[in-house]
Queue: 3 jobs
Job 1
Amino acid sequence: MSSASKSNLIIRIIENKFTPYLVTIIFSIFMISPIILMLFNSFKSAAEAFAWPPTIFPINPTLETYVRVFNSAVPLTMRNSVILSIITTLIVLAIALPTAYALSKYPFRGSKLILLFYLASRIVPPVSLLVPFYIMLSILKLIDTHLGLILVYTYITLPIIIWIIKGFFDEFPKDLIDSALVDGCTRLGAFFRIVLPTSAVGVAASGIITFLWSWNEFLFPMIFTTSNHVAPLTTGVFEFVGDEVIEWNSLSAVGIFASLPAIIFFIFAQKYIIAGLTKGALKL
Amino acid sequence: MKDSTFGFLVALPGTLYIAALVAFPLGLLFWLSFVRFDFYNPIVFVGLLNYVRVIEDRVFWIALQNTIVYATGVTLVTTCLGILMAAAVSRISRFSTFFRTLLILPWAVPLVVSGLVWRWMLDPGVGIYNYLLISSGLVGNVVNIFGDPTLAMITCVIADSWTRIPFTFILVLAGIQSIPVDLYEAARVDGANMLHSFRNITLPLSQKSILTATLFNSMFSFRTIDVIWSMTRGGPGKSTYVLGIDLVDYLIMYTNLGVTAALGVIMLILVALYTTVMIYYLLRR
């Protein structure tokens, strides 16, 4: 085959209307198989999880791993993850909402600089701040406490969440606020009565993003926690990772739990999360 | 009250909070990198000694090299696959929401878990992917991927990319979908085939999202240790040992936190440099 007809063939294949479906299906298998395999694996007995050749579907599905997981430290770390993520989200929203409102609708001298500083703080690698935070939390006696981790989590999420929420507020017409002011509303009153309710979707999306980022954080809890009473699920997954043996089936069950909140949010609130994330990202 | 005064007062608490949690630790980091600090002995100013100790360590240079290979690998794989996925999905009319949801789900998996899952799937003793490689005849025998320096690095890159592709995919898809359809029509009338229009319309017009995604991917993969930590912890030998893990090891092993701080400053500068080079290189093309 000559090279001309060969490249013609390639273009014909690319232009075929079934090709994108085929490509998408192949990619989907690549992307989804680890999650599906992890889910199946969590229903295997210990013997089957260690069998060679490995099975894809559990031959004798059992709930023994889930019993084992629930009798370990995992539920405790899961509780910690919930506490840490929810409190972080509430604090971040409480601070970010008024700040973003002011920066979006009532700019002042230096407000651009402040926004730039938030953005620049994202370039600082968190791992670099491990030492200063370690010293600060040690002095404040906050090592191995929920509060200490929450402080770190807010540092990681707050600056970029302000950017995302500001993006949502920017779309809100200033005229509406001004006409409310004419009607006797205060500037803060306009914020609570008009801006917040209309931007509810954006606020919810930002809350979900904060929750998920906090939920996924691993580096700081790994260094700053020693007890299971504080440690989140991202460190709890190592419960079944021993020096000699890794209990893959139990580990898979924990992995599913660790991924569950985000999976649920992605299935039910995908549109809003994506809107929030792309808004924050494209502002760069 | 003037509007600008109002804005200033409302933005003040949040800004102070962030300053306390970012600017202050940052200042502390720089100061620490020039002193000997260990909680017990008096603090001594040591000049650049901490930096010298970091740079004189052979492991630092290995880690630096690994970090660059790793970050570049993750960025390349993520960006290329993300663009391909976005291009494919943008041409799909049926089930596109369904496929989009499937393709972004890996994003839900925490990076540590991603490392562990891929470690399991490729495990020489129980791994399904390892078994598939053998039964498909691609390899003759069980491969111990985590015993081979190159394969271990490739695996870490794949596992990390796997969770980062969705973000790139979503950004680029949004970019592609904002391109007016008329442009493609016009190009087709002029005799351009799909490959031409992909190169001359799709890529240049979704450049902003591609650049943004690339920037985030390179910045994050340069500094994140989650996947490597759960997968190889730097091994075998030091073949996947990256700067972030080096820093954590310093923190655990050395009582003098000044040295660790110096490595922190070096990492900060390297990330800034690497990201700048990345942007410059991408913008020039």
Note: The beta strands of chain B are 35-36, 44-45.
Job 2
Amino acid sequence: MPAAPPEFLNREQSWLEFNSRVLAEAARPELPLLERLKFLAITASNLDEFFMVRVGGLSALVRARQRGRDPSGLTAPQQLRRIRQLVEQLVETQSALLVGQLLPGLRANGMSQLRLSELTPEQRRHVEEVFSETIFPVLTPVAVELDERARPQLPGLRLGVACAVAAPGEPVRHAVVVLPAGLPRFLPLPGVPDDGWACVALEDVLTHCLGAFFPGEEVRASGLFRLTRNGDIAVDDDEVLDLAQEMEEMIEARQQGDTVRLEVPAGLAPGLMKFLRQLTGAGAEAIYTVHGPMDPGAYMAWTRVPGFEHLLPESWSPQAPPGLDPGKPLFDTLDEGDVLLHHPYESFDPVVRFVQEAAEDPEVLAIKQFLYRTGSRSRIVAALIEAAERGKAVTVLVELKARFDEERNLERAEELRAAGAQIIYGVRGLKSHAKVCLVVRRKNGRVRRYAHFGTGNYNEVTARLYTDISCLTAREDLCADVSAFFNAVTARTRHLRLQRLAAAPLTLRDQVTDLIHAEASRAAEGFPARIQLRLNNLQDPALIRALYRASQAGVDIRLNIRGVCCLRPGVPGLSEKIRVVSIVDRFLEHSRILYFHNGGSPRLFISSADWMTRNLDKRIELLVPIDDKAAKLRLIAILKTTFKDTTNAWELHPDGTYVRLKAGSKKEMLRSQEFFQKEAKRRAPRRRASHAEGFEPHRPMVP
Amino acid sequence: MPERAPGARSDREAGAPQAVIHLGSNAITLLIGEPAVDGSLRPLELLSLPVPLAQEVFRHGQVGGEAISQAIEVLRSHRDAMRDYGIAGPPVRIVATNILLEAQNQDLLLNRIEVALGWPAEMLDDGEMTRLVYLAARRLFDRQKALAAQGVLVSHIGPGNTRLLFFRSGGIQDYHRYPLGIERNREQVEANRGDLNVSARMIGQTARSLFHQMGYDFSRDAVGQLVALGHEMQSLARVLGGGRGRSHVLPVRKLAALSAEIEEFGVERLARRLQLDFRTADVLIYALELHLGLAQTFQLDRIVVPAEDFEEALLAGMVSPAAAVDRFRREVAQTALNLGRKFKIDTGHAQQVARLAAALFQELQDLHNLGRREALILTAGTLLHETGHLIGSRDHHLHSYYIIRHNEVFGLDQEDTLLAALVARYHRGPVPSIEHPEYQQLDRAQRLVVSKLAALLRVADSLDRGRGQRVGIRRARPGAGRLVLELEGVKDTSAVQLALNRKAGLFSSVFGMDIEVEAAAATTDSPS
């Protein structure tokens, strides 16, 4: 009799499964070519981060000879072996798609990447000019003597060329040239038809012109490479006196961490391979041979080339949400009731407006805001700076530990501080992940507070790409809790007593556990019980076990988990009442919505937290109850629609694999993101009523 | 020109947010609130940051430099929070725990605050602390009428003192204060423990004699319920009590089990399990054991803890509206009268003299220039002026002084009690003299208060010389060198004038006026 499968699915495998689902979008012939290319590029950037963080972490465990097993029962070496197997398949599929389908397809539609041998004399002259004027001056070849102790520290995630050169009669020596971050990967070419676009890859140009760097020597061999370094260098909060300074050091350290991946092209000369291995210290397990173009993430730039919009899907622009009169102060609207927004179908502008109006409103006394990942030209940060300059009390909690965004966050923090805002660099030992903003304002001589809660970051760029929920409210109980929450995290008080909100790492875990248990108890007593969750990741073993127990008690559980899901659904006796789907579509699914049936009076929440141990125990997160009846109904409708998706939804099977759902009939076909976009468009206020178009009956949208 | 900061207002607007700060035993707490229509504060923020003031006082006899610096830092943080609500000036009140009175360097902290922030801090006196505890209890009874109907013992075990207030039918009946406190007890236990771990039994033993005293003091009161006020019990109740009702009911059995758990596993585990800050967790076993001792003394099997935040109630009470203060004054008079009953006073006469004294006090406000506090001292002194009769009629004023001086008068601090005792002492017999040691120990301002109040009491007492309790004062007309009292309820004022002539000497020497009485003209209804 075969052994029962482990209770939990492996986290890394689950993440790679997610990346495969994204890559599967790139393989869909019915999608426009550049949309497919975008998905492929995303999988490449995702993989970079996965190596830096997850593979980096596991490699560190192996080096530290940690013998522990993860909840799925695997040791770190076992996990690394499995990862390698899956990544090799994924990269192979990437290359095959890129070389075999996407680049030829794009070429047929006027977008070409040419080899140097394909260039016309005019194009060749152009390339040589660009090289000598733009590229050559910024590149520095570094000669490497492997027997020297001080070897050059090569930066991660950059393409480089390794070469063997020799002057006549001299021994061969090695050098590397690394492409700097500022140069575009693809050089557009002149002399192409008006409706076309052609480019050469920078690495091809560099390889071709390599001799220019070594006058009087001969380039005997050359080859591309790309390094990935361990990015998961933990900051020891307890010992950090000046966190800002520490972060700067960490950014530097990340560039010099251990090699976790060395990507090389197929057919690299053995001598160069040996040189690179010695230079980078990469073991055999870290070497990945790429059969297609290296760093396919760079192809994202192609999706922004003007003139090829027809190769992109129809634009879905964010719609103005109904009920928000641009001529009426937003605070007056919020005095009348809550506003729930569904991004990116509905514009993020009201959230920006919330902070901007607060900055300009002379009655506003204070603004408090969490900033996790901001855009580089954030209007929200600009508004906060303006508010501080106007003398309002502005407190901003800037999370420096937002992975890979530290540099940007530090810059913004400095600007804010210069304007007079009080800046808090996160909370020691915890990453501040909550998305919340509080405005304190006088109205008719009384203090009134307003809050924005979000499931996504205050980032206007990602707010157009990620699905998220925003709730703007003037509810006194919620706003009082937000104020208390800010006071606690900014160390203004020792107590955090929340009436309505739950906050990680203090009460959030307990509250959701209680909510799950309550449903389980109802089910055990024979009452209808239901849980519906929409999260990005579900990994926390304790909460997964709580869900298993609820399933065993008879609770109907439907989970929409976009990424990692360590819960094994549909296992008789363990999780047979649990169904897990994942949606991968044009927008990144990011909103976190929780539904508990609560005996027929549903309780709904939005949250900044994924159900991962790190989020629940090591991050500052919020769980926000939604009380407004219309907002609750809307969230229920959103959940219902996502669970009906039959075009972009995948179902997780007990063995950990995902299978794309298919509609039984055309009538049943539903693409949830398209539905939400249409719904937002329908709900959007019309700029001008046109009677000539006739009357349009108001029909509820039923998926 | 730079725009004016929205919060930078020179004067405090009506209805604008206000702040009040309490430098408590373990923390400095800020309450920001908005005045409601009834004058109470609608809380907006309650911020509390730890500073171990009481521990410093009880351990070292003074507040150390580090703690003072810490306090200044906390106050600066509170100032930032006040600015978020547009409060640019100092708090309405900044009050320090009266535990500081026991510190050798009590003024140093308050001076440092004034220098660093420009905020004039004051010391919370015992009388006001009692009033604040009373107000917190009052708020509970206002919300839970059913609770008020029973005989309820309200306890506040503070860092240094325990206050017990007995309420029946919603009104205060009895009050006592004891030198038993969480920090005081902790220091005693830790000083005596040697190498032994602190055990629950040690805590109880240290307080045993005081528990006996409490049992005796309230032996005539039918205590049916114990209501515990205070931060520590409230922190506990939030976790153990469950629910979000008006109060938590904690079974004594459960509390005893918790105490045993702390003894076995230590405070670290408790702090983690109950999500308490370490400072609270650290003293929780003392709070628990003292409350358990109290429950055992009165043979109660449960303790009620109000859900309302005690610290918030305390701070709100510091800026409580006049209506609440008046009610408190009535309650002070009621408990003083109850105390007087224990000494078999003629309550009718005592109340009549108190009424007359109060009328005089009010009518002669411009003459004596005394405030509410002195009015309360006069009331207490007047109601208790004849308690000495129980010991003997001869020199009963001296006995009254002794009795009042050695009893706790609810709502009065030690100084106020001393002044009330002296007011009673001088209601007859020799006038205040610097040769009387108890009078001599007062400063000049205090002596003046005693003389003024005793003068008023002598006049009031003489107006009820016949104990008929008929005379009332309609009006007092001060003139050049004389004061005319228009009396109601008496036609022939000659007997009254005679009695007055014998007792108004002190009044004449203090205020420089002789008193004449006349019958007030009969009133007619004014036309509508």
Note: The longest strand of chain B covers residues 41-50.
Job 3
Amino acid sequence: MTETLDDELLVRQFNQGDDSVFDRIVEGNSAAIAVLANRLLGWPGEVEDIVQDVFLAAFLGLKKFRCECSLKTWLFTITINKCRSYRYKRMLYIRVFSQADAKTSLARAQAANETSMDSEVFERVRRAVKALPAKYREPVVLRYLQDLSTNEIAPMLGISKNALNVRLSRARERLRQDLAELIE
Amino acid sequence: MTENKIKNLLQKADQTAGAPAPISANLAVAVRRRANRRHTANLAVRIAAAAIVLFALGIWSFSAKKTRDQQNIVALQAQIEQLRVQTDATLNLIREVLDAERKQRRLNELRAELASIPDPMEEIRKQVDKTAFILVYQANRMYRELDQKDSAIQAYNRVIELFPQSRWAEEARQTLSEIKNNQLNNSKGDLI
């Protein structure tokens, strides 16, 4: 509730011409947006373009923001939509990108000695997550990696809670099948 | 149970992947710049669209003007044709009026000419009078100059016979009376 009030204040200040508000919004949310975009796109590592797109859409649409949800939720919704269109538009490129990205991700994974997962396992998990259709991957990322409640996720995806639970269940089933050796 | 395992696996993978590359500190500036560029591009597109619309309107108005001009030309041609018909009608009327005037003038001339011709009956009367005068003149000449009394009497009687109502018949009667009186006087003188 307090967050929404703060957001309302920010939006009002922005509408009154206070440009510094946008700087504060970017500063406060860019990291979270980057993490979410990174997860939704299958950990490519480089997500600045997407984050820039998200904040551009926010900058252009902030005056129309009606504070029916928190600013963060609104930004997350924009991020989900941008990631969808990004993947759709660059489907061919993503194949090449993902191969290159796989190498960088693998390199990062190998470099991270303290991580509890070896590079081969990471790559399998990564492939399994990326293989999920967007309608299953998004709920999985938001629920298990962003730790959001179903109450928060459902409006972000524009679906009912029941539909969300069904999608989560089906996504789990797919992952269970793909990663059976790792889970058991 | 499976859900927790999957969640753990995913979280481990996420930790393994690490955080995304740090976002540029000038993100807000870059976003504003892109927004400005987009605004400029939108403005350019709108201006171009407006220019295209204006151009199309110009062409449309030009063609409409052309069509209007053509319509005007057709209307003017129709008006000219109408005026020509009216002019022809007026000329015909003028021609008819002039013809009528000419005929009237000719009629007046003929009337004047007719009026100038003398009355034939009068002429006949004059001729008759003249003939009677000539007869009386010849009779007088025969009686007074040529001493042809009998011929003169015959002539006077002819005048009385032919022109009984004329003044010359009256004169012939007087002369005859005079002749008779003379003859009586002569015979009286002879008797005396």
Note: The first helix of chain A runs from residue 2 to 15.
